[in-house]
User: What shape does this take?
Amino acid sequence: MKKIGAILTAVALVLGATSIASAADLIEADESFAMPNDVAFGLHGVVFSDQDTGQVASWLMDQALLSNQLVDPTCDSLEDARCQSSILSFIAILPVCKDLTDINCLAEIGAIKSDGSKVVGKFENYFPLKAENEFVGNASYLLPSGTSGALFSIPGISHKGGDKYYATFTLTGDVNKKTKMSSLASFDTRITPVQLQSAPLITGSCGDGTGCPNAGWAYNKITKTWGGQASGFDGIHSCVTTSSIDSMCAQRFSFPENTRFYLKARVNLSPTGWLHGRIADPNLEFTESGGITTIAIEALPVRVPTVYKSYMWPDLPDYVKSKYEASTGRFILGSGRAFTRQPGSMSQTDPLKRNYISQPNSSSRTGIEELKTWLPTVNDKATAVPSNWSARSLREDELSTANTCFKSDSKVTGIVTTNSTQYSAGPPEFDKKEGSLVYKVAAPHFSSNGDVFKGSYNLVIRSDIARCIYGFSKAPIKAELSIVSADGIPQIATTVLGEKDGWVSLSAQNFEFSAPIIKAKLTQEAEVVVTPTPTPSASSKPVVKAVTITCIKGKTSKKVTAVKPKCPSGYKKK
Assistant: This one.
């Protein structure tokens, strides 16, 4: 998906005192971090966050039309005359289920209180009411419909902004018109506590004063081209999504404490392979019946540290500057994923004419190294620690180096969850030398309030996958989990291990950062082979040979054969 960039001009970002005062009362600065609106040329910064600057949006797209930015490449349905390619790509935020027979839909969200009681959420409305690129699916092609995310109220489960929660269950894939089939590349699901707030400076001006489109693919009136568009930034709000027609922002809030949240969806394109979650202590169920998979995820939310820092290029510390290409701004080891507050400046080779903010994926293969580069500039302290509840399947590129046992085209193989800022791409790596599953994570040592930030890690892996990796038999699996600091010193952490119902579960809590290595070593006792007691055979008797003798009586003779032959009465042995 093309990066959604900011399209606000510097002039449009001047805020009035009244707007700041009214909004500040309803914003949790730590939980709902909004990046500063750094618009200066020559600025070079970085943000490490699981809360993307863009907004998730539905669309059905003809990729062949992307080369012509004067044409809208999105489609209303498979029958859209504009979309002639045989293969179309889609991002579908699923609609809410209408009834119990509906499929490719979000069936239910809710909460489970500390006493175990369940509270089912009530669907309020879609937000925005209509997605920018809403499209109609086709059940015959297994193509889901794409809508906006849904607002639910969960009675009695209140956060600081009320009882509203924004939920999305998103499928990404392709549909082939020739084969009349769709394929799933990945899924992503999220629950976020929100409050609707007025945000006219975000939604009401996109540089020309006429209003922003909703998130998605739209026409840019400044550049007069089609492209990925969204609302801008005001340096105050952190919107999970926005609605331009009424200038509203779904402002993020923190989750209530000690409350588990759950979500259910029914799909006919079932996720496969490895999952990752920003959750803790997860329970997952994937139930298939008649070609329909019901997905149920229940877990605690977690707090994930955000780090933001920026400098003017001349002031950038030398050890940080040495890690970036001056001509492009890219991290020398990274992919170059970044955004700008000054559209068009990213192509500038002069760093003083460029506005560049690096934004590595949380699972970026080089993101851990990039974070370690910047941590000294923030004194190893998080900028904010927002809470999160999300789960997703890994992309193909994240599985490229994974052990083949983790790759499955038919079932989910497992899930790893962590609250670290950056983490290893893909499932844990298998270290053959040590016989351990190794997982690398990185986060600031301190929370934004100065307390030591404590890490969490959960690994749930199918038992047959563990046996595949280790070549184990069917005997019960045992596990040993260890946390080793970057300097090689072992840490003491709370660990829970076990195998149950075909899954091996490992959990580590309360370990410390900045960049520990988590190692899980699985073992098993020798499989007990039950040897059946042999059935006693009949006692063997010695083989005795028969003897033949000749008996006579007068001129008559007889041969007698027996073990102990005797002549008949009146006969004599010859």
